[in-house]
From TrEMBL:
The UniProt record lists the keyword Nucleotidyltransferase: yes
PROSITE patterns: RNASE_H_1 (PS50879), RT_POL (PS50878)
Domain Reverse transcriptase: 1-115
Keywords: Endonuclease, Hydrolase, Nuclease, Nucleotidyltransferase, RNA-directed DNA polymerase, Transferase
Parts forming coiled coils: none
SUPFAM superfamilies documented for this protein: DNA/RNA polymerases, Ribonuclease H-like
Residues annotated as domain RNase H type-1: 351-480
Protein name: RNase H type-1 domain-containing protein
UniProt keyword Protein transport, yes or no: no
Amino acid sequence: MDAYSGYNQIRMNKADEEKTSFTTDQGLYCYKVMPFGLKNTGATYQRLVNRIFARQIGKNMEVYVDDMLTKSTTAEKHMEDLKETFDVLRKYQMKLNLSKCVFGVPSRRFLGFQVHQRGIEVNPEKIKALEGMASPKTLKDVQKLTGCLASLNRCIAKSTDKCAPFFKAIKKGKRLEWSTECEEAFQKLKEYLGRAPILSKPVVGETLYLYLSVIDLYLSVTEVATSLVLIRLEEGIQKPVYYTSKALLPAETRYSPVEKIALALITSTRKLRPYFQAHTIEVYTDCPLKLILQKPEVSGRLTKWAVELSEYDIRYTPKAVIKGQAISDFIAEFTEPDAKVRKVMEDEQTTKFQWKLHVDGSSNTHGSGAGIVITTPEGDTMECAMRFDFKATNNQAEYEALLAGLRVCIALGADELEIYSDLQVVVNQVLDEYQAREEHMIAYLDITKRLLRKFKVYRISQIPREENEKADALSKLASATTSIRSKAIPVAHLTKPSTVESKEITIAEIRPSPGDWTYKLRKYLEENILPEDAIEAKRIRYRSTRYTILRGELYRRGFSKVLQRCISGEKNRRDPEKRPQWSVWEPHWG
């Protein structure tokens, strides 16, 4: 249905009539009804129809400005729905343009798409126009073609890939070159639109599913696009709801494969925000997105995206069996690129644990100390100076620095470690090239090798002192004086040598009770279980982006990326007299 001169059916406010004045040869006139051409006429009319059809919109009616669609599942129900619509129109004295109204039809064009009982499909008139279109010969023809396709993007799988030759042909600074590649893409596009999939309408409250893929256009590393399809299940068959595709910016093409997949998801949430707000979304991808977004060492942009995604109810699932031809075609087109993405991801998994540890010990008349510099796979740096409360030789100080650095790396979850030291004796003893003769040196070497066995791969190398400047400066800072007051660099105190046996304090693991503040966070992060209350579940999802589980402990990410361990109520009940040998120090991220 279409309203008859819809804007003119709204009366102007008496005080505003003079503001619509216009001059003619017969005098000065003004509008008593809302004219076409005013800045806010569209918004005003939309507010009107939203108010008068408030009970029907989304139920048996859809309205966009002056286009109205009454929908029903059966013919009998349709008569009741039409009667309800006409009663509202009569009540508010709204008139229809009979020449543009059609009643009792199984399908109808609405907002440029053909709507019928099976779903939403491309307007046949647009398809016919594209099929009858000759191959473009000028730049204007190509722009006209891309403009027509832009309105059909939601119905075209991998649209960026299909239209890429056209965009390349109209790049600025280039003359139009309609190549064989463009002609093939044009003909394939015509063929695809002839059998374009029918889009399905989601039901309120049902779970929707999202397939993500990152595609490499023409095997070029500089032209990359992300594509996705939102689907729903109907009688066991997967039906598409919406296709989207986006060409990446030059900076985005340099993202890692994991970041590109995360970008595809974040782009879909921004474009399909109403769907994500109204439905639970299950994301089908072979990439462990949830695990990556919750890792403590994620990059800044991934952390920001994780916070943005926490607004929605998103679940991550490995790709399942495909139960729909349209979805099968979509997935088949991405099989090879996804395999390449997974391979790159696997390569990254093997190299991302390449932690680097620089250590140095120092001993002088003022005392002894050590310097530790740890570099993460992302390039972040942790620095610590350690003061010894006992006398130590240079060799002992170097070993203490090495042992402290190894303990910190183990606590941070490093699997592959590259160690640098400028003391030849210690390095060669660890490499079994030198023999340790003194009893205390043998003890230090034994502890060192015991800790090194906890790494999958490690390598220790001797480097010149000039290449170990940071650790050297930290060790001298720690050993220079007994009263160190450094706000930028944390300083730890070691009260006894590592070779001195001490009784270890064993603290039984206490799982938080349901009343503990960490309980709900742990349940979600470890078991993906949320509270039944929707508001509380949303709050937990949002908070979880700032927390991570590391070696069974709950940590909170600080603003400077420092991990802060969360203490539950039960763990605060330790005996204050039982103090460990080591002082606690916070890692500083440089």
